[in-house]
Design brief:
mainly alpha; 2 strands; 5 helices; two-stranded antiparallel sheet; 179 residues
Length: 179
């Protein structure tokens, strides 16, 4: 901001010069709004006076509100591409190459089971994302450990019982032999 004084005037009126266009626009709106609007209309120019800008924004916002009440959001149905052997072959080869799989992966029984399950889908297949897949693997692993622990505890109990019975049997045999 620069402050200037007019030395040629007796009253020494101070003028403040500001390099902001908004100040100039407010000044023009306060003192020359009519002339400016006539000039803008004549030259097909959009008025940049603060009041006119505010009025345009309010008008646009009101128009948007009236449009929004009539709009409803619809989800687009996913387009399912019809199956063909050629399309499957192409997709399988692209998968092999993109994921750096060995060619034998197509012969793996689990891969064939997966394709068999997916082939029964009527509206496409939803492939789980990484997070869901990880959570499912963790759940399956935890269940497997629980079943394994139960099996081992049962086996351990059976072994302990068998050992006890063996010791009892041996003790009885020794008692019989000792008599």
């Amino acid at each position: 901001m620069v402050v200037l004084t007019h030395s040629h005037q007796i009253n020494r009126k101070q003028c403040i010069l500001v390099n902001e266009s908004t100040t100039l626009r407010r000044h023009a709106e306060a003192n020359f709004a009519g002339k400016y609007r006539q000039w803008a209309k004549k030259h097909s120019f959009e008025s940049m006076l603060p009041g006119d800008i505010k009025a345009r924004k309010e008008k646009a916002e009101q128009a948007q509100q009236t449009i929004n009440s009539h709009l409803t959001e619809r989800k687009l149905a996913e387009r399912v591409i019809p199956y063909s052997n050629k399309l499957f072959k192409q997709a399988a080869i692209e998968w092999l190459v993109a994921t750096d799989q060995p060619i034998q992966a197509l012969d793996h029984p689990k891969f064939q089971d997966m394709i068999d399950v997916a082939s029964r889908a009527t509206n496409g297949v939803k492939i789980p994302n990484r997070r869901a897949t990880r959570a499912e693997i963790m759940r399956i692993f935890k269940n497997h450990l629980t079943r394994l622990r139960t099996t081992l505890n049962v086996s351990r109990n059976l072994v302990l019982r068998a050992a006890s019975l063996h010791l009892i049997f041996q003790h009885r045999v020794l008692l019989l032999v000792a008599q």
